[in-house]
Amino acid sequence: AAKDNGRHTFSVFSPQSAQMIKERLKLRQEVFSALERRQFVLFYQPQISAANGAVVGAEALLRWDHPRLGVIAPGAFLSMLEDSPAITAVGAWVCEEACRQAREWELLGYRLQMAVNVSARQLADENLPPLLKSLAARYGLDTGCIKLEVTESMLTQDIGKAAAVLRSLQAEGFRIALDDFGTGYSNLSYLRQFPITAIKIDRSFVQEIEEDRRCLDIVNGVIAFAKSLKLSVICEGIETEAQACAIRSTECDVLQGYLIGKPMPASEFQALLLAQSATPQQAAPGCGQPD
Ligand code: C2E
Ligand code: MG
Ligand code: MG
Ligand code: MG
Protein backbone atom coordinates (compact mmCIF):
# COMPACT_ATOMS: atom_id res chain seq x y z
CA ALA A 1 0.00 0.00 0.00
CA ALA A 2 1.10 3.56 -0.68
CA LYS A 3 2.54 5.30 2.38
CA ASP A 4 1.64 8.88 3.28
CA ASN A 5 4.70 10.83 2.19
CA GLY A 6 3.90 13.71 4.52
CA ARG A 7 2.87 16.11 1.80
CA HIS A 8 -0.83 16.63 1.34
CA THR A 9 -0.68 16.25 -2.37
CA PHE A 10 -2.65 13.96 -4.55
CA SER A 11 -2.08 13.18 -8.15
CA VAL A 12 -4.10 10.89 -10.33
CA PHE A 13 -0.82 10.16 -12.09
CA SER A 14 0.88 9.02 -8.93
CA PRO A 15 2.82 5.76 -9.27
CA GLN A 16 0.15 4.17 -7.10
CA SER A 17 -2.64 4.80 -9.55
CA ALA A 18 -0.50 3.73 -12.49
CA GLN A 19 -0.04 0.52 -10.56
CA MET A 20 -3.76 0.32 -9.95
CA ILE A 21 -4.56 0.82 -13.62
CA LYS A 22 -2.13 -1.92 -14.52
CA GLU A 23 -3.69 -4.17 -11.90
CA ARG A 24 -7.15 -3.52 -13.30
CA LEU A 25 -6.07 -4.37 -16.82
CA LYS A 26 -4.51 -7.54 -15.54
CA LEU A 27 -7.66 -8.47 -13.65
CA ARG A 28 -9.67 -7.92 -16.80
CA GLN A 29 -7.50 -10.44 -18.60
CA GLU A 30 -7.69 -12.93 -15.77
CA VAL A 31 -11.36 -12.73 -14.88
CA PHE A 32 -12.53 -14.58 -17.96
CA SER A 33 -10.58 -17.69 -17.03
CA ALA A 34 -11.45 -17.56 -13.33
CA LEU A 35 -14.49 -19.82 -13.78
CA GLU A 36 -12.64 -22.64 -15.52
CA ARG A 37 -9.82 -22.27 -13.00
CA ARG A 38 -12.38 -22.76 -10.25
CA GLN A 39 -11.42 -19.52 -8.55
CA PHE A 40 -14.96 -18.35 -7.85
CA VAL A 41 -16.49 -19.07 -4.47
CA LEU A 42 -19.72 -18.09 -2.80
CA PHE A 43 -19.82 -16.37 0.55
CA TYR A 44 -23.05 -16.40 2.51
CA GLN A 45 -24.53 -13.61 4.59
CA PRO A 46 -27.13 -14.52 7.22
CA GLN A 47 -30.65 -13.13 7.18
CA ILE A 48 -32.54 -13.34 10.44
CA SER A 49 -36.17 -13.19 11.43
CA ALA A 50 -37.03 -9.86 13.06
CA ALA A 51 -39.52 -11.72 15.24
CA ASN A 52 -37.18 -14.22 16.91
CA GLY A 53 -33.65 -13.77 15.59
CA ALA A 54 -33.53 -17.18 13.91
CA VAL A 55 -31.45 -17.48 10.75
CA VAL A 56 -34.08 -17.86 8.04
CA GLY A 57 -32.02 -17.19 4.95
CA ALA A 58 -28.67 -16.70 3.33
CA GLU A 59 -27.65 -14.35 0.56
CA ALA A 60 -25.09 -15.94 -1.73
CA LEU A 61 -22.44 -13.39 -2.67
CA LEU A 62 -19.82 -14.01 -5.33
CA ARG A 63 -16.14 -13.85 -4.45
CA TRP A 64 -13.05 -14.35 -6.58
CA ASP A 65 -10.36 -16.23 -4.74
CA HIS A 66 -7.47 -14.74 -6.67
CA PRO A 67 -4.14 -16.59 -6.48
CA ARG A 68 -2.11 -13.37 -6.04
CA LEU A 69 -4.58 -10.95 -4.48
CA GLY A 70 -6.65 -13.14 -2.20
CA VAL A 71 -10.43 -12.94 -1.93
CA ILE A 72 -11.92 -10.14 -4.06
CA ALA A 73 -15.47 -8.74 -3.78
CA PRO A 74 -17.63 -8.21 -6.90
CA GLY A 75 -17.09 -4.44 -6.94
CA ALA A 76 -13.66 -5.06 -8.48
CA PHE A 77 -14.62 -7.49 -11.24
CA LEU A 78 -18.36 -8.06 -11.69
CA SER A 79 -18.95 -5.24 -14.17
CA MET A 80 -16.20 -6.67 -16.39
CA LEU A 81 -18.15 -9.93 -16.56
CA GLU A 82 -21.52 -8.27 -16.87
CA ASP A 83 -20.34 -6.35 -19.93
CA SER A 84 -19.73 -9.65 -21.67
CA PRO A 85 -21.67 -12.85 -22.39
CA ALA A 86 -19.32 -14.56 -19.92
CA ILE A 87 -21.65 -13.54 -17.12
CA THR A 88 -24.12 -16.20 -18.29
CA ALA A 89 -21.78 -19.06 -17.43
CA VAL A 90 -20.67 -17.45 -14.17
CA GLY A 91 -24.30 -16.73 -13.26
CA ALA A 92 -25.25 -20.34 -13.99
CA TRP A 93 -22.40 -21.50 -11.77
CA VAL A 94 -23.61 -19.21 -8.97
CA CYS A 95 -27.12 -20.68 -9.28
CA GLU A 96 -25.84 -24.24 -9.18
CA GLU A 97 -23.44 -23.70 -6.30
CA ALA A 98 -26.09 -21.91 -4.23
CA CYS A 99 -28.56 -24.77 -4.85
CA ARG A 100 -25.95 -27.39 -4.00
CA GLN A 101 -25.16 -25.59 -0.76
CA ALA A 102 -28.83 -25.06 0.12
CA ARG A 103 -29.37 -28.80 -0.27
CA GLU A 104 -26.37 -29.59 1.92
CA TRP A 105 -27.73 -27.40 4.70
CA GLU A 106 -31.22 -28.80 4.24
CA LEU A 107 -29.84 -32.31 4.77
CA LEU A 108 -28.27 -31.05 8.01
CA GLY A 109 -31.73 -29.94 9.09
CA TYR A 110 -31.62 -26.26 8.11
CA ARG A 111 -34.21 -25.17 5.63
CA LEU A 112 -33.17 -21.72 4.49
CA GLN A 113 -34.28 -19.30 1.86
CA MET A 114 -31.30 -19.06 -0.45
CA ALA A 115 -31.07 -15.64 -2.09
CA VAL A 116 -29.16 -15.43 -5.37
CA ASN A 117 -28.32 -12.20 -7.18
CA VAL A 118 -28.85 -12.23 -10.91
CA SER A 119 -27.53 -9.92 -13.63
CA ALA A 120 -29.50 -8.11 -16.30
CA ARG A 121 -28.31 -10.51 -18.99
CA GLN A 122 -29.52 -13.51 -17.00
CA LEU A 123 -32.87 -11.87 -16.48
CA ALA A 124 -33.24 -11.32 -20.21
CA ASP A 125 -32.38 -14.95 -20.93
CA GLU A 126 -35.34 -17.28 -21.35
CA ASN A 127 -33.05 -20.17 -20.41
CA LEU A 128 -32.90 -18.95 -16.81
CA PRO A 129 -36.25 -20.41 -15.61
CA PRO A 130 -35.60 -23.90 -17.05
CA LEU A 131 -32.05 -23.82 -15.67
CA LEU A 132 -33.26 -23.00 -12.17
CA LYS A 133 -36.07 -25.49 -12.43
CA SER A 134 -33.68 -28.29 -13.35
CA LEU A 135 -31.29 -27.29 -10.56
CA ALA A 136 -34.10 -27.33 -8.00
CA ALA A 137 -35.10 -30.79 -9.24
CA ARG A 138 -31.53 -32.10 -9.29
CA TYR A 139 -30.88 -30.99 -5.73
CA GLY A 140 -34.34 -31.88 -4.46
CA LEU A 141 -35.12 -28.31 -3.41
CA ASP A 142 -38.51 -26.72 -3.10
CA THR A 143 -38.47 -23.85 -5.64
CA GLY A 144 -39.91 -21.64 -2.89
CA CYS A 145 -36.57 -21.92 -1.06
CA ILE A 146 -34.80 -20.07 -3.85
CA LYS A 147 -35.12 -16.32 -4.11
CA LEU A 148 -33.76 -14.34 -7.01
CA GLU A 149 -32.62 -10.81 -6.22
CA VAL A 150 -33.10 -8.34 -9.06
CA THR A 151 -32.67 -4.57 -9.17
CA GLU A 152 -34.94 -1.96 -10.64
CA SER A 153 -32.41 -0.98 -13.29
CA MET A 154 -32.60 -4.52 -14.69
CA LEU A 155 -36.34 -4.18 -15.03
CA THR A 156 -36.02 -1.04 -17.11
CA GLN A 157 -33.56 -2.48 -19.62
CA ASP A 158 -35.53 -5.10 -21.46
CA ILE A 159 -38.96 -4.88 -19.89
CA GLY A 160 -40.72 -7.40 -22.10
CA LYS A 161 -38.11 -10.10 -21.71
CA ALA A 162 -37.54 -9.49 -18.01
CA ALA A 163 -41.27 -9.66 -17.34
CA ALA A 164 -41.60 -12.93 -19.26
CA VAL A 165 -38.65 -14.50 -17.43
CA LEU A 166 -39.92 -13.35 -14.04
CA ARG A 167 -43.40 -14.66 -14.78
CA SER A 168 -42.13 -18.11 -15.65
CA LEU A 169 -39.99 -18.08 -12.51
CA GLN A 170 -43.05 -17.12 -10.50
CA ALA A 171 -45.10 -19.87 -12.16
CA GLU A 172 -42.48 -22.39 -10.99
CA GLY A 173 -42.72 -21.09 -7.43
CA PHE A 174 -39.43 -19.20 -7.18
CA ARG A 175 -39.39 -16.07 -5.02
CA ILE A 176 -38.29 -12.73 -6.40
CA ALA A 177 -36.92 -9.85 -4.35
CA LEU A 178 -36.42 -6.30 -5.51
CA ASP A 179 -32.92 -5.44 -4.27
CA ASP A 180 -31.60 -2.00 -3.26
CA PHE A 181 -35.17 -0.70 -3.04
CA GLY A 182 -35.34 3.07 -2.85
CA THR A 183 -32.10 3.80 -4.71
CA GLY A 184 -33.54 3.89 -8.22
CA TYR A 185 -36.58 5.74 -9.39
CA SER A 186 -38.72 3.38 -7.34
CA ASN A 187 -41.22 3.35 -10.10
CA LEU A 188 -44.02 1.73 -8.19
CA SER A 189 -45.64 0.36 -11.31
CA TYR A 190 -42.85 -2.26 -11.33
CA LEU A 191 -44.52 -3.82 -8.37
CA ARG A 192 -47.62 -4.28 -10.45
CA GLN A 193 -45.92 -5.31 -13.70
CA PHE A 194 -43.51 -7.79 -12.20
CA PRO A 195 -44.27 -10.71 -9.88
CA ILE A 196 -42.17 -9.43 -6.98
CA THR A 197 -42.58 -11.25 -3.66
CA ALA A 198 -40.23 -9.21 -1.45
CA ILE A 199 -38.42 -5.91 -1.31
CA LYS A 200 -35.02 -5.25 0.20
CA ILE A 201 -34.86 -1.76 1.60
CA ASP A 202 -31.49 -0.33 0.65
CA ARG A 203 -28.87 0.22 3.29
CA SER A 204 -28.71 3.95 2.58
CA PHE A 205 -31.99 4.33 4.50
CA VAL A 206 -30.74 2.22 7.37
CA GLN A 207 -27.42 4.06 7.55
CA GLU A 208 -28.96 7.43 8.38
CA ILE A 209 -31.83 6.17 10.44
CA GLU A 210 -30.43 7.64 13.69
CA GLU A 211 -29.38 11.04 12.30
CA ASP A 212 -32.29 11.63 10.00
CA ARG A 213 -35.76 11.06 11.41
CA ARG A 214 -37.18 11.07 7.88
CA CYS A 215 -35.35 7.82 7.12
CA LEU A 216 -37.42 5.98 9.69
CA ASP A 217 -40.57 7.66 8.38
CA ILE A 218 -39.70 6.58 4.85
CA VAL A 219 -38.90 3.05 5.95
CA ASN A 220 -42.21 2.84 7.82
CA GLY A 221 -44.07 4.20 4.81
CA VAL A 222 -42.39 1.84 2.37
CA ILE A 223 -43.10 -1.11 4.66
CA ALA A 224 -46.78 -0.18 5.06
CA PHE A 225 -47.03 0.09 1.31
CA ALA A 226 -45.20 -3.23 0.77
CA LYS A 227 -47.44 -4.95 3.32
CA SER A 228 -50.55 -3.71 1.56
CA LEU A 229 -49.22 -5.52 -1.51
CA LYS A 230 -48.52 -8.63 0.61
CA LEU A 231 -44.79 -8.34 0.00
CA SER A 232 -42.27 -9.38 2.59
CA VAL A 233 -39.67 -6.85 3.64
CA ILE A 234 -35.97 -7.23 4.30
CA CYS A 235 -33.75 -4.43 5.58
CA GLU A 236 -30.14 -4.65 4.50
CA GLY A 237 -26.99 -3.00 5.77
CA ILE A 238 -27.72 -3.06 9.49
CA GLU A 239 -24.41 -2.29 11.16
CA THR A 240 -25.24 -1.04 14.67
CA GLU A 241 -27.48 -2.02 17.56
CA ALA A 242 -29.22 1.34 17.32
CA GLN A 243 -30.06 0.70 13.66
CA ALA A 244 -31.31 -2.80 14.48
CA CYS A 245 -33.43 -1.32 17.23
CA ALA A 246 -34.98 1.26 14.92
CA ILE A 247 -35.70 -1.40 12.30
CA ARG A 248 -37.18 -3.73 14.90
CA SER A 249 -39.65 -0.95 15.75
CA THR A 250 -41.04 -1.34 12.24
CA GLU A 251 -42.95 -4.18 10.58
CA CYS A 252 -39.83 -5.34 8.75
CA ASP A 253 -39.73 -9.15 8.52
CA VAL A 254 -36.07 -9.94 8.00
CA LEU A 255 -32.81 -8.25 9.00
CA GLN A 256 -29.46 -8.44 7.24
CA GLY A 257 -26.18 -6.61 7.79
CA TYR A 258 -22.71 -6.68 9.29
CA LEU A 259 -24.17 -6.51 12.81
CA ILE A 260 -25.96 -9.80 12.25
CA GLY A 261 -23.13 -11.30 10.24
CA LYS A 262 -20.76 -10.41 7.43
CA PRO A 263 -20.67 -12.47 4.25
CA MET A 264 -18.63 -15.56 5.16
CA PRO A 265 -17.37 -18.82 3.70
CA ALA A 266 -19.84 -21.73 3.74
CA SER A 267 -17.95 -23.48 6.55
CA GLU A 268 -18.32 -20.45 8.83
CA PHE A 269 -21.97 -20.05 7.96
CA GLN A 270 -22.52 -23.67 8.82
CA ALA A 271 -20.80 -23.20 12.19
CA LEU A 272 -23.19 -20.32 12.82
CA LEU A 273 -26.18 -22.54 12.03
CA LEU A 274 -24.93 -25.25 14.35
CA ALA A 275 -24.21 -22.76 17.15
CA GLN A 276 -27.70 -21.33 16.77
CA SER A 277 -29.46 -24.61 17.31
CA ALA A 278 -27.17 -25.42 20.25
CA THR A 279 -28.51 -22.40 22.16
CA PRO A 280 -32.22 -21.87 22.87
CA GLN A 281 -33.90 -19.49 20.45
CA GLN A 282 -33.94 -16.02 21.98
CA ALA A 283 -36.58 -13.45 21.32
CA ALA A 284 -35.29 -10.29 19.68
CA PRO A 285 -34.03 -7.85 22.32
CA GLY A 286 -36.65 -5.29 23.22
CA CYS A 287 -34.31 -2.30 22.89
CA GLY A 288 -34.65 -1.34 26.54
CA GLN A 289 -38.34 -0.53 26.33
CA PRO A 290 -40.79 -3.17 27.48
CA ASP A 291 -43.69 -3.44 25.03
P1 C2E B 1 -26.24 -6.55 -3.05
O1 C2E B 1 -26.95 -7.69 -3.64
O2 C2E B 1 -27.04 -5.35 -2.70
O3 C2E B 1 -25.50 -7.17 -1.78
C1 C2E B 1 -25.26 -6.45 -0.60
C2 C2E B 1 -23.85 -5.94 -0.54
O4 C2E B 1 -23.69 -5.16 0.65
C3 C2E B 1 -22.79 -7.03 -0.44
O5 C2E B 1 -21.60 -6.55 -1.05
C4 C2E B 1 -22.61 -7.16 1.05
O6 C2E B 1 -21.34 -7.69 1.42
C5 C2E B 1 -22.73 -5.74 1.48
N1 C2E B 1 -23.20 -5.61 2.84
C6 C2E B 1 -23.96 -6.46 3.55
N2 C2E B 1 -24.22 -6.01 4.78
C7 C2E B 1 -23.61 -4.81 4.88
C8 C2E B 1 -23.50 -3.82 5.91
O7 C2E B 1 -24.02 -3.97 7.02
N3 C2E B 1 -22.79 -2.69 5.61
C9 C2E B 1 -22.19 -2.50 4.41
N4 C2E B 1 -21.50 -1.38 4.23
N5 C2E B 1 -22.27 -3.42 3.42
C10 C2E B 1 -22.97 -4.54 3.64
P2 C2E B 1 -20.77 -7.46 -2.06
O8 C2E B 1 -20.74 -8.87 -1.59
O9 C2E B 1 -19.48 -6.76 -2.33
O10 C2E B 1 -21.66 -7.44 -3.38
C11 C2E B 1 -21.89 -6.25 -4.06
C12 C2E B 1 -22.95 -6.44 -5.13
O11 C2E B 1 -22.47 -7.31 -6.14
C13 C2E B 1 -24.24 -7.07 -4.61
O12 C2E B 1 -25.04 -6.08 -4.01
C14 C2E B 1 -24.81 -7.59 -5.89
O13 C2E B 1 -25.48 -6.57 -6.60
C15 C2E B 1 -23.58 -7.99 -6.67
N6 C2E B 1 -23.37 -9.44 -6.56
C16 C2E B 1 -22.82 -10.16 -5.55
N7 C2E B 1 -22.80 -11.47 -5.83
C17 C2E B 1 -23.37 -11.60 -7.05
C18 C2E B 1 -23.64 -12.72 -7.90
O14 C2E B 1 -23.41 -13.89 -7.58
N8 C2E B 1 -24.23 -12.44 -9.10
C19 C2E B 1 -24.54 -11.17 -9.48
N9 C2E B 1 -25.11 -10.99 -10.67
N10 C2E B 1 -24.31 -10.11 -8.71
C20 C2E B 1 -23.73 -10.32 -7.51
MG1 MG C 1 -28.57 -8.74 -3.22
MG1 MG D 1 -28.73 -4.70 -1.97
MG1 MG E 1 -26.73 -4.14 -5.25
UniProtKB/TrEMBL annotation:
<protein>
    <submittedName>
        <fullName>Bifunctional diguanylate cyclase/phosphodiesterase</fullName>
    </submittedName>
</protein>
<feature type="domain" description="EAL">
    <location>
        <begin position="24"/>
        <end position="277"/>
    </location>
</feature>
